[in-house]
Amino acid sequence: MNDSAGLPARYKPPGKFAFLPWLFMLTGDVQGLFQGQTPLPWLGGAGVLAFGALYAVAVFTSLDERRRYTPTPHVALAGLAAVTYALTIGYGGDWLLCFPLLSLVSGIVLRNREGNGRRLGVVVLTLSGSAGLIGSFRGGPSESLTIGYGTMLSGLVASAILTLFETVAQLRATREELARGAVEQERLRFSRDLHDLLGHTMSVIVVKAEAVRRLAPRDLDAALGQAADIEAVGRQALTEIREAVTGYREGSLTTELDRARSLLEASGIQAEIRQSGPPLPPQSAALLGWVVREGVTNVVRHSGAERCTVEVRGETDQVRLEITDNGRGVGSDAAAKSCGTGLKGLAERLAVAGGSLTCGPDGRRGFRLVAELPVDSESEEDRKR
Question: What's the pTM?
Fold first, then answer.
């Protein structure tokens, strides 16, 4: 995969054709061939053609992500090195410029691969030393120093530039991937919130509507009271949905405990609500409020219980919420659902905040849900809000 795909032009590394103009460094050698200044011009011409072809193959394949890690670039580089040594040893002079070009290709082929940094350094130093040694025999100390330095510099600069561009491209791709992940995480958070919110609210409305139907024939005032509760729950649900959409909704443990009592009593379940301990931080109270909402909703929907106890015990460093009922308990579909998808998201939130959520049988009959949370811990999700 090409990490630079889709990037603005200023962030893209040099393309395949960007390095071809460097072959014009050999223009003087080609002119010498045509002017008859080079011995065995046919051999020199064949060497130049081979050099140009191998140069192009090595550059093109090493800049192609599909062929970069195949043997082709390295085979072409090896052939280019053989031609370079043959031409420079045989002719000297301006032909020594083949060494900087060879070093340039080496930097392109051997760049940015695991374990290749040391190999590239060895290759570039070897080529630089070879260019300096051959130049001293065919030109003199001054030419030897110039060609050696140019050879070393061309390979290192080519590798550094390409590596820098590709690193920038990878960083941008990583940043985009992290942004996509953050969006997915926010969608997951919102879907969990909406599930918890609507699941509880619709349960309350259904239970109270059933109460209206039961009470209407014999106690109209009580039925009207339940109908008023349905209206209030509906209005509150609209408000919470709007707040959930904007991402600013905060739950309240006290409010959820009051709602739990109302829901349980409307369902014909004896409710016992107990709360003790110091006041809780808003984040901890909001998180436990969600647990009360989901846990009591599961009791009403699935347990078939006659009695339900919700107890909150707070201490200086930890708070414990326990919901128990005397319903069908373990082994039933209700138990599977209670420990399944309904509380999975809440268990993840508690875990992020350093807490835990467990559920299971309460003796031979009944079910227990326990949530524990450090009161001095603030969840990552809450910090993001």
Answer: 0.46
